[in-house]
Amino acid sequence: MKKKIIRIDEEKCDGCGICVKACAEGALALVNGKARLVNEQHCDGLGACIGPCPRQAITIIEQEVCLPGRAACGCPGSLAMDLRAKAGAPDRPAQLPAVQPGGASALQQWPVQLHLLNQQAAYFQDADILIAADCVPAALGDFHPGLLKGRILIIFCPKLDNAAQEYTGKLTEIFRLNRVRSVTAAHMEVPCCYGTIKLVQDALKASGKHIPFNEVVVTVRGEIKP
């Protein structure tokens, strides 16, 4: 099968490194003064590195890749993994709408998706903000009591939303216009999800404020990395 991947024209590349910073997957690096695709399996072919290139040295091509499900195919964050227990009968879902003990929601506001949020919503004043990649609440079993409790929630996907510039600007305004006490950014351990941190840090810097910042990394097995 074929997948999209970037190609760098060495003649045009001047080694400025802008594309390296723009690649959330960490697939690019500067080698001998030129940008290089150093990890093809991490390249998602979405082209976030193309726009910032001042020399138009980057294009997207298609090339043959191995069959899906093998580690060398595409972004590691898309690799299929069966996390169910290997021994005994699989857990059956509870009959809806059953509520398990301790299952109270810690959500304090609505909406939560960054695209829908009002930068000047009252709940941002004097808030501790949790910015979470979309998959974090699904992966982390104690997301509500352990991470969300006491915080205002913002969610987005750094890989699929394709709105990095818009999101950076919106977060910048949230930080700039409100008295924010702290910011916690939670993302998955897969390479493409680290774009969450870059986006939040860029917004914090652009806001001109010194807001305490914490990073939380969640594994695909639902554990917080120490």
How is the quaternary structure best described?
Answer: single chain
Helix content: 10-25%
| CA-based shape | globular
- The residue ranges in which pLDDT falls below 50 over 5 or more consecutive positions are 67-72
Q: Strand order across the biggest sheet?
A: 6-5-7-8
What's the mean pLDDT score? 84
Instruction: Using the coordinates above, name the CATH class of the largest domain.
Output: Alpha Beta
Look up the CATH topology of the largest domain.
Answer: Cobalt-precorrin-4 Transmethylase, domain 1
Q: How many separate structural domains?
A: 2
Distance between the termini: 38 Å
CATH architecture of the largest domain: 3-Layer(aba) Sandwich
User: What's the count of strands?
Assistant: 8
How do the SSEs run, as a string of H and E? EHEEEEHHEHEHE
Q: Approximately how much beta-strand content do the residues carry?
A: 15-25%
Q: The biggest beta sheet, please?
A: 4 strands, parallel
Q: Please state the structural category.
A: alpha/beta
Description:
It is globular, with a radius of gyration of 20 Å. It has five helices and eight strands, in the order E-H-E-E-E-E-H-H-E-H-E-H-E. It has two domains: 2-76, Alpha-Beta Plaits (2-Layer Sandwich); 114-218, Cobalt-precorrin-4 Transmethylase, domain 1 (3-Layer(aba) Sandwich). It has helices at residues 18-22, 136-139, 143-148, 164-177, 195-207; strands at residues 2-8, 28-31, 34-37, 58-64, 127-133, 152-156, 180-188, 213-218. Helix 4 crosses helix 5. Helix content is 19%, strand content 22%. It has a four-stranded parallel beta sheet with strand order 6-5-7-8. Strands 1-4 form a two-stranded antiparallel sheet. Strands 2-3 form a two-stranded antiparallel sheet. By secondary structure, it is α/β, with parallel strands linked by helices.
